[in-house]
Amino acid sequence: METIVFKAPNGTKARLKQLGNISEVLRQQTELLLRRTSPDSALAKCRDLAGAVRLGKNASTTKDYLKGYGQKKHR
């Protein structure tokens, strides 16, 4: 097991003691944090798709992009 040392604001140690064993609380919360940001996350899985679609430099305000927006389609 590794030892990690960090500085925390005054009062943090007392607040952690109220939750139980400080070391155990920190280990559990660190593990939860690492699981949430794991390489298997949805963001990590689709990171290579960022920028895959090109809509032009200003697609949200280009008149051609907005042409027909909000109009009913006739059948």
Helix content: 40-55%
The protein's oligomeric status is single chain
In terms of DSSP E residues, the strand content is under 5%
The strand count comes to 0
Report the order of strands and helices. HHHH
Largest sheet, strands/sense/barrel: none
First-residue to last-residue Cα separation: 69 Å
Overall body shape? elongated
Low-confidence stretches: none
Radius of gyration: 25 Å
Determine the structural class based on helices, strands and strand pairing.
mainly alpha
Mean pLDDT: 80
- By DSSP (H or I, 4+ residues per run), the number of helices equals 4
Structural write-up:
It is a single chain. With 75 residues, this protein is mainly alpha-helical. It has four helices and no strands. It has helices at residues 12-19, 22-36, 42-46, 63-66. The model has no long low-confidence stretch (mean pLDDT 80).
How would the blueprint of this fold be written?
Elements: H1 12-19, H2 22-36, H3 42-46, H4 63-66
Keywords for this entry:
single chain, 43% helix, mainly alpha, elongated, 75 residues
Quick description:
The protein has 75 residues and is mainly α. 43% of the residues lie in helices and 0% in strands.
